[in-house]
Amino acid sequence: MGIHRVEHAPRRRLVLGVGAAAVVLGLVAAVLALRPSDEAVQDASAAAALPALPALPTPVPLALPPLPAAAPVPTTTTTSSRTTTTTSTTTRRSTTRAAAPAVGKGPAGRVLALVNAARAEAGCGAVAGNAALDRAAADYAVLMARTGTFSHTGPDGSDFSERVRAAGYDDPGGENIAQGQTSAHEVMTDWMNSPGHRRNILDCSFRTLGVGEASDYWVQEFGR
């Protein structure tokens, strides 16, 4: 079961560096020297008046733009049902689901019908039911229900492709599993609302499908 973690965005801080420019005003003094030939010294010397220094401009405060509002932190909710998926390749498709006639019998047949309805809306061809894939899916659903495990890796260390080949199908494509759902409609809703599971269901390269159900464990085995 996936663990959802909420990470909070770090608090923003603004450090504003203001550089002060020092202005050095140089005063130039004019010195008048008397020539040696000048014998008369004036009783009063005229002092040249320095021009008045210009007034420094009044400091203008920096107007900082307001900080943008922090984006809302997403929250997550969890339910008692679980889903997980694995596949050798994935393809992203649209996911609108339409009604489809029932194919096969029982929950497995209804899952197959819902899968093909979703694929038709996405522009993919229908997947055909396959006895070997049905057997692999059903056996693994029973195994998980009996052992209380929930993983694409079996208690014996096998992965989905090994289980599918052991059941007699030579070109495995992907596997979806789920636990806690009580109907075909409920498990398909959960799978279609999960990006990884949806990619498997809407992968146009898949041609066959096996579905297994035991207690509240569900398995889809896709083949090419």
Describe the structure.
This protein is α+β, with helices and mostly antiparallel strands and 224 residues long. It has a domain at 107-223: Pathogenesis-related Protein p14a, CATH 3.40.33. It is 25% helix and 13% strand. The protein contains 5 helices and 5 strands. It has helices spanning 106-122, 131-147, 160-166, 184-192, 195-201, and strands at 82-87, 128-129, 172-179, 208-214, 217-223. The longest helix has 17 residues, at 106-122. Residues 1-50, 59-65, 67-80 and 88-103 have low confidence and may be disordered.
CATH architecture annotation name of one domain: 3-Layer(aba) Sandwich
SSE run: EHEHHEHHEE
Number of strands: 5
Q: How is the largest sheet built, in terms of strand order?
A: 1-3-5-4-2
Structural class: alpha+beta
Q: Give me the number of helical elements.
A: 5
Q: Write down the overall geometry.
A: globular
Helix content: 25-40%
Radius of gyration: 40 Å
Largest sheet: 5 strands, mixed
CATH homologous superfamily assignment of one domain: CAP
Proportion of β residues?
5-15%
Unreliably modeled segments = 1-50, 59-65, 67-80, 88-103
- The rounded distance between the terminal residues' Cα atoms is 28 Å
Q: Any idea of the CATH topology of one domain?
A: Pathogenesis-related Protein p14a
Instruction: Please tell me the overall pLDDT.
Output: 70
Per CATH, the class of one domain reads: Alpha Beta
InterPro entries: CAP_dom, CAP_sf
